[in-house]
Structures are given as C-alpha cells and as structure tokens.
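Changelog excerpt

This revision adds worked examples to the README so contributors can see how folded entries look when concatenated. The first example is reproduced verbatim below.
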Amino acid sequence: MSDHDWMGRALDLAERAASAGEVPVGAVVVREGVELGAGWNQPVGGCDPSAHAEIEALRAAARSAGNYRLPGSELFVTLEPCAMCAGAIVHARVARVVFAAADPRAGAFGSALDLRAVPGLNHRPHLTGGVRAEEAAERLLAFFRERRLLAGTGACVG
C-alpha cells in the first residue's frame, strides 16, 4: 500500500476517536507492508494522559512484534506528533514517521519544536509531512467547531 493508503487507514482510526468524543487523531504502525499496530486518541475515555493515538499504536505494535523496539517500521499519523509521542517514537526506533497535518502549537517534529535536533539522541526518524493534510485538518477543524457550538448551548461536551 502507498503512503496515501496507509494514511487512509489512520484517518479511519481518527473517526473512531471522534465518534467517542476524542480529538480525531489516528495512527498505524507498519513494517514491510504489514500492519503491526493501530490506535486512536483515547485520553479522555481512558482517563490516561498518555493515551494518544501514536502511543496506542506503538503499544500494539510492540506487543505484536514482541519487542519494544520497532526498527524498520513506519508510523502513519493524522497529526504531527507532540513531544511525548515524538519521544516514544525515538525510543521505539521507528524508522519513518508520516504525518498528515502539521501542529503549529504542539508538533515536535518541526512545527513547535524539532525533537530530532536535540544533540545526543541516538535515533532520528525520517519524516514525511503533508500526506492527506487537508483531509486531516478539516476533520480536526470540524471536531472543534462542533465542540464550540455545543459549549455555547450548555450541552455536556465531555
């Protein structure tokens, strides 16, 4: 499958997050064309601040591979990873990260900061940004637009 196709899988996972009232971010870890793990944002429902899509996908991939290191793997995610997720990606030795939308407020692979520029890190994943970015950004904007509308009505928004 192509980067476009794998990002489609991540976008489908983002919809799972949105349907549960979570920020619509999805992620999938792939090695040699085979899905090792997938995840979507679940911090609110799981009462777990670390339950970002990337972390969930890395956890599933590590269990599948039987190793916390995932050399040769690629991670496809609908939003540029934050510092926590970027750190986990580095520790897992993910070879390549493909993200859709950049995150100027919290993105840690070039937007708000670039974790790969930290001297002393012994691993730096290759990056590809902007794959299906408009689709991912529109889903995020629609989610937050709806949340603002609900907040204005006094309805419970989670």
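The second example, added in the same revision:
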Amino acid sequence: MARKPANKHSGETGSTVSAFPATKPRRARIEMSFEDQSLLGALFGQFDANLVQVENRLGVFISARGGQLQIEGPEDSVARARDTIQTMYDRLARGEDLDAGAIESLIAMSNEPTLEGIISGEDEAPPIMIRTRRKTIVPRSANQIPYMRQLAKDDIIFALGPAGTGKTYLAVAQAVSQLISGSVQRLILSRPAVEAGEKLGFLPGDMKEKVDPYLRPLYDALYDCMPPEQVERRLASGEIEIAPIAFMRGRTLADSFIILDEAQNTTREQMKMFLTRFGQNSRMVVCGDPRQVDIPGGGGQSGLADAVGLLEGVEGIAITRFTAADVVRHPIVGRIVEAYEGKAE
C-alpha cells in the first residue's frame, strides 16, 4: 500500500495534533513517534498489515516513515486510531502478544474513555491481567474488565452471554494461574453431557472416552494456557479433573477452582447440586448462554436462569452479562450473534 511520508517528529514516544479548518465532520491530523525502534516491525505488521487493519476499521489514513506515523481522517476516528496504536505499542513493550484478534479487540475498546487504564491499570492499581505459563492475558472487551476482576476476588461468579466472549477461556486462564501459584490445589472443569443423552452408551470406549468429546472446549482452553506435558502430568495426578456434572454428586470441593461450562443445559436440580459442592478456599465459575438451552425434551427451566434469578445480589456472588459487542473472535461472529439475537426478540 502506497503511503505518504510523515512529517518529521523527534523526541520520546508521543503525539502532536493539528486540526484542519472545521468541516462536517471535523477532520484532524495526528503525528506519532516511538522511542523503541526495534518494536516497529511487530507494531506495523508484515507489509503494514496491522496499520491497514486499523485504517479499514476506523476509516482513517495512516502513513508510516521510519519510526513515525501520521494519521488523518475524521477527528473522533483519528483519536481512536491514536489510542489503539499507542496501546498496541505499549503491549509490545511489555512483551505481550499482538495478533489480528488482539488488535480488533483494542479497536473495539477504543470507544471506552480509559482504554490505556483498562489495559495497564489506573492510578496505583495493579494491571488487569492473568499470567499463565504460556501467555499473559489482558481484557479484550469492555465487559471482560469487571469479569477479570471478579475472577480474582469473588467466591462464585456467573458469566452469561453468547459464544466467543471469553467466558470460559478467561475462567480457565485464571484457574491455571491460581493452580500454578499454589492458591488452589485442584482445578475441576465440568459441563453437562446433554448432547449425549441416551446415545452416550452407544459411543465406543470407556466412560472417559465417551464424555471427552463434550468436554473438548475445556481441553482446548487448558492446552492454550499450559504446556501440554504439564497438562498431561496434572491430569494423571488428579490436580486437574475434567468430568461431566453427574460426577460431582456427593462431593465437597475444597481448595479448588471449579468451572461449570454450558451451564444453561443443567436442570434446576443439577445446578443446586453443583453449587452446593462449594468448599473452603475454593472459587467457582458458572458459564453459559441463557439463549442456547438444549435440555432434552425442552421441558423444565434451565438451572442457570433459575440460579441467577435466585442468587443475584447475594453477598459473595458476582454476575457478568456479556453481549454481542464483547465477542472477541472474528468480527463476523459478533454480527452473526447480533442477527440471531435480533430475530429472537
């Protein structure tokens, strides 16, 4: 992509702004420079792909020359592009990953007035992040911010919303972080094997092999946060347990981080049984999409909806409601969710 040379600008990382004569909408030009030139390759992306992504999403023009950028376009869009690129640079400076998905999320969050505060923590507060052996995870949507705070401090957390919003992934990441640090002794991941129903007995293999296909998303999140050899070792030792919800009956789960995924497919009785497994020094996260109930026969109320109605406002219990705007997969996933939700209303 042909790019116009930027004006010379020297000094530490920063920006200067000059506004064009007022038009409708007002236009602006912003110049940025960056102190650490070694980060610019990763910041701009191969063939300036990262800058093109920001341009296309925000409707601005970005020209790059050396360690300098010039951003032109509508005033509000230029300010958002500046904040997004600055946060991209800051992430790279902290040694964090930067890919197309992360950039898309930063662009979406640039509507928030405190984008940099979201990522690095405001005032003297610690940064909002989860560290695992494989990566450092920061919020990628507005509602992930309070959710990640809840994961660090509340006893029982309900995470409600559509697929792709990071409900389960962030819960698994926090669980892995606490297991590694020794804050908990076990990580227990569960979900109802609703899709199996009467067909479960006809699947080949032992019980683990029968239910594993329904627990695959939990395995995927786990392997993304921890080296495979550690996952296998901890599974073998019992430090990590992945099982259908029926296996939880009669147990008290102490010193554990417990996650229930696809909770909308539990019955009222199953949910009550699961929640009352809570033991000392434990944390429990219940994830699900109330709009995607697949309980066989369609009879009975979802245990997730029932529990949220009963427990909202109870001390020690937190609830985060995600929307299509929080989807952090490909942007088209968010548009698909919005289309289906609009049709359901």
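Reviewer comment on example two: The longest helix spans residues 75-93. Residues 253 and 304 are 20 Å apart (CA to CA).
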